[in-house]
Write a structure and sequence with these properties.
Number of domains: 2
Number of helices: 16
Number of strands: 0
Largest sheet: none
Length: about 325
């Protein structure tokens, strides 16, 4: 209804009719918008005051007036996220999760070009351990585009956080490394991940300090008893296979970047981890230790340091503390 039509209506209906027409005119100009936005403002203040449940309730009221206003949904999503308790398995946490996810889905519908929608949606899925949903989402993207690196990284992140999915994580690391076969760091990443798993699951200090060779001072030449293993440790042939796989990809990294001393360090460390599978075979254990020492010396030569005498088994593990993936990656980037 335009202004001229309103004036004609007032002339015909008199004062009482004019009030009605003004109300209609108000509605046509967006009184619902005004009411909805006012409720959003109140909800925002409740959010700032830390009254998240009350804020969500006020956002719900605003939804009745401005269901297509994108600001409503991003603010409601943020508010629901504030109510999340990581790892909690309660009805309240489930409700807050669904509230945040539905709000961010609606935001994506209303503002498809806004990167905050998908980013916040995915972040919420990760924070609430929605591993299966994330896996399906990223896998669908890979099926459409085999070279979707963002989806590959997403799958690596999902499975590395998903308990009991070591093989899946390794598979997706390999997929990325093979896809980026000329990228030294993609090869390096797989080797480092495998070392971390072996170190955490049966590759600690008790194994590093054990020497299975018979004590030459003992006349009886008794077989030594290795440290005990826990049920969740990676042992035997499985440890050997994972070590060999990690070494393979780290050697690829060195082939691509001849002075990649961080990768060399992890080859050394993986040979140490591999040796722990041979506590019942001192000869094979010694071969692994010798290879570790060989790679240690290569590393020292590349870094400009003269090789010292062979390090004891635990020395290589201590060296890893200064070569965590993040630190090593940063150092690598500084050298390039």
């Amino acid at each position: 209804m335009n202004k001229r039509a309103l004036e004609r209506g007032i002339a015909r209906t008199g004062r009482a009719g004019s009030v009605l027409l003004l109300l209609v005119f108000c509605a046509s100009l967006g009184c619902s918008q005004v009411r909805g936005r006012r409720r959003i403002q109140k909800a925002n203040q409740l959010y700032r005051d830390g009254q998240y449940k009350e804020a969500v309730a006020m956002f719900r009221e605003a939804e009745q007036f401005v269901p297509d206003f994108w600001v409503l949904w991003i603010n409601m999503g943020y508010t629901c996220r504030q109510m999340l308790i990581p790892g909690a398995k309660t009805e309240e946490n489930t409700a807050a999760t669904q509230c945040a996810l539905s709000a961010f889905r609606r935001l994506q519908e209303l503002k498809p070009g806004d990167p905050r929608g998908p980013a916040l949606y995915e972040q919420t899925l990760f924070e609430t351990d929605q591993h299966e949903t994330l896996s399906k989402m990223y896998t669908q993207r890979i099926e459409k585009n085999q070279a979707d690196e963002e989806a590959l990284n997403g799958l690596i992140q999902v499975y590395s956080k998903w308990p009991g999915h070591l093989d899946d994580t390794v598979a997706w690391y390999r997929r990325k490394a093979d896809l980026k076969s000329s990228d030294a760091e993609a090869q390096y990443a797989l080797g480092v991940y495998i070392w971390h798993q072996l170190f955490a699951k049966g590759g600690g200090a008790d194994k590093a300090t054990f020497d299975p060779r018979p004590d030459p001072s003992s006349k009886k030449n008794q077989v030594k008893t290795p440290p005990p293993s826990n049920p969740d440790e990676i042992v035997g042939q499985r440890r050997i296979e994972l070590s060999d796989l990690g070494i393979q990809y780290l050697e690829r990294a060195v082939a691509l970047r001849s002075k990649y001393h961080e990768a060399m360090t992890y080859v050394n460390l993986l040979y140490r981890q591999k040796s722990y599978a041979y506590f019942d075979d001192p000869e094979q254990w010694q071969k692994c230790v010798d290879k570790a020492t060989e790679w240690r010396d290569k590393t020292l030569a590349v870094t400009g340091k003269a090789p010292d005498s062979p390090a004891p088994p635990e020395a290589a593990e201590n060296e890893a503390q200064s070569n965590e993936p993040g630190n090593a990656r940063a150092a690598s980037q500084r050298k390039r």
